[in-house]
Amino acid sequence: MNENKTNINWYPGHMAKTKRLIKENINLIDVVYEVIDSRIPYSSKIVDIDDLIKNKERVLIFNKYDLCDKEETNKWVNYYKNLGYKVVTTNLNDLNSIKDVLKITKKIDNRRTRILIVGVPNVGKSTLINRLVGKKAVNVGNKPGITKSVNWIRINENFELMDTPGILWPKFEDKVAFNLASFRAIKEEVLPISKVVCYILDTLLKYYPDILKERYNLESIDEDYIEAYETIGKKRGCLVKGGTVDYEKVNSIVMNDINEYIKGVTFDRYESR
Question: What is the C-alpha radius of gyration for the chain, rounded to an integer number of angstroms?
Answer without folding.
Answer: 20
